[in-house]
């Protein structure tokens, strides 16, 4: 779970203003943070299949948002994936 303070930092960094939580790069950054936290959880709890379902849903949602961003603003897409280090 990402703390409110961390979410506020991500919104400030990736958003157009401090309250712009609906902006695609902000949503991608928050989902990436949650996914990274869950990776650590699954390293310790390999049999937690119930949480794995939610994890996969988050990964798919991020994938959809990345696809949308790539289609609408490719330069912002490149900048976002570079800053978040999510693609090779």
UniProtKB/TrEMBL annotation:
**Assigned keywords, A-Z:** Plasmid, Ribonucleoprotein, Ribosomal protein, RNA-binding, rRNA-binding
Looking up PROSITE patterns in the UniProt record yields: RIBOSOMAL_S15
GO terms (BP aspect): translation
Q: What InterPro entries does the database record attribute to this sequence?
A: Ribosomal_uS15 (IPR000589), Ribosomal_uS15_bac-type (IPR005290), uS15_NS1_RNA-bd_sf (IPR009068)
Pfam families cross-referenced by the UniProt entry: Ribosomal_S15 (PF00312)
Q: Which SUPFAM superfamilies match?
A: S15/NS1 RNA-binding domain (SSF47060)
Q: Cellular component GO terms, alphabetically?
A: cytosolic small ribosomal subunit
Quaternary structure (record): Part of the 30S ribosomal subunit. Forms a bridge to the 50S subunit in the 70S ribosome, contacting the 23S rRNA.
- What's this protein's family per the entry? Belongs to the universal ribosomal protein uS15 family.
According to UniProt, the name of this protein is Small ribosomal subunit protein uS15
Q: Which gene encodes it?
A: rpsO_2
